Amino acid sequence: MNDIARQLLRAVAFLAVEALLLDRVPPVHRFLSPSIYLLYLLWLPFRLGRLPLLGIGFLYGLVLDMFTHTPGLHASACTLAAFLRPYLIQVLMPRLDEDSGRSEPSIGSMGAFPYATYLALMTLFHQVWLLFLEWLDLGDAGYFAIKVVTTSVLSLTLMAVTEAVFRNRGLEGRT
Amino acid sequence: MNNIRELLGRYSAPILFLLLQAASLSMLFRFNRYHESVFLSLYNEFAGAVNARYDGVTSYFSLRRQNEELVRQNTLLLNRLRSDFERPDTSQAAAPATLPEGDRRFRFLPAKVISNSVGSRKNYLMLHRGTDQGVAVNMAVVSPSGVVGTVVNASPNMCIVMSLLHQQSKVVAVLKKGSGYGEVTWDGRDPRFLSLSKVPKTVAVAKGDTVLTSRYSDKFPPDYIIGYVESVLEDQVTSTYNLRVRSSVDFTSLQYAFVVANLQAAEMEALRKSTQEVNE
């Protein structure tokens, strides 16, 4: 119960920051539109099954869509992220023992390098899909790639800051 | 049944993923104006391409019917031309709708081309229309794109047409610009080109001028197109031009033609004869 309440609170916090802050700030540059809300899905506990994970991803994206007036856009991207997450964790962390099964992905539970790779790849997949859906056109492939990379880098920077601020106690994987 | 359940169990995550993606994408394409328009335009393009292909194939099946329909319509329109009528008293103007049938001079009779030649020096066509259907020898034959020739023989249901591409063919022609009567003949070489001779040098002729049938012809409807001036060959010895004319009719692909009956021809002929008798 405590766990569920904490997860809900965290989701609300991420959505609030994303929808009420990041989405409203006028873009600094056409290449720079950072987002951080994906981190919530990346922080979900390991033990969550694939089906609940997909459900949560879909609903989470849908709620954000309600705020950004883009029905289906973030829902689709978050569902994709939720679908890819278990596979990526399996590759990066082959030995998922009972103990770590109760915790969340973090530097402490995964190791610094696998965790960083996990964050980077998930953000990249997510941004590629999101931008593709938004444009429905690869158009200028170079422009597309630059936009994906800059947005991903900026988002990752924001995630690192969040990580440092809210998870400084986080070697044991708790917020 | 067990197999299905096992399959569903093993692939439940991918299946749910696809279902949720379908739900999100359907929302995306339904509720976002830009996405909806992109989706619809893609869809329309695809459907349009398929339909165009389909139509390209099926239109062949109705081609014959369409052709007949067009010929019927052309006949109707050609028979309403003001130039089909010639009143005895030309000072009385009359609007086309009020022209009495008794004043009709030309009547267009549609006919299917059943054989055709362009390769010889004396080319003939055969039309599927004969004396029982109102064709008589010496009637003019035109196609929608221009003059074709003259009927030289007719049986009850068929007739033979001497094409313009015949060494003995001779059609009185006029330049659309107004003056310059001449004779259109064929030199027997290129089926695309005719020659127009006896045009006096007092007339200014340029490349591209339109060549029409003359009003003085007994059989051809006036101002019907024959072709366009392709080049001007000046004849140094005589005082006339020799013009090379590109025929407006593609004689190699004729499908339908109109036999033109001159309903006042008998009267004209009788008058001519009686004049000759008086003079002799």
Q: What is shown here, in short?
A:
Chain A is an all-alpha fold and 175 residues long. Chain A is 69% helix and 0% strand.
How does this model look, in words?
The complex is a heterodimer of chains A (175) and B (280). By secondary structure, chain A is an all-alpha fold. Chain A has one domain (2-172): Arp2/3 complex 21 kDa subunit ARPC3, CATH 1.10.1760. Helix content of chain A is 69%, strand content 0%. Chain A contains seven helices and no strands. The relative contact order of chain A is 0.13. Chain B is of the alpha+beta class. Chain B folds into two domains: 2-58, no CATH class; 65-86 and 102-264, Thrombin, subunit H, CATH 2.40.10. Helix content of chain B is 31%, strand content 30%. Chain B has helices at residues 2-10, 12-31, 33-58, 63-78, 265-279; strands at residues 106-116, 122-127, 140-143, 146-154, 159-166, 171-175, 181-185, 193-200, 210-213, 225-234, 240-247, 256-262. In chain B, β4 and β5 (159-166) form a beta hairpin. The longest helix of chain B has 26 residues, at 33-58. The radius of gyration of chain B is 31 Å and the shape is elongated. The N and C termini of chain B lie far apart (112 Å). The chains are: A mainly alpha (175), B alpha+beta (280). The interface between A and B is medium-sized, with 23 and 20 residues.
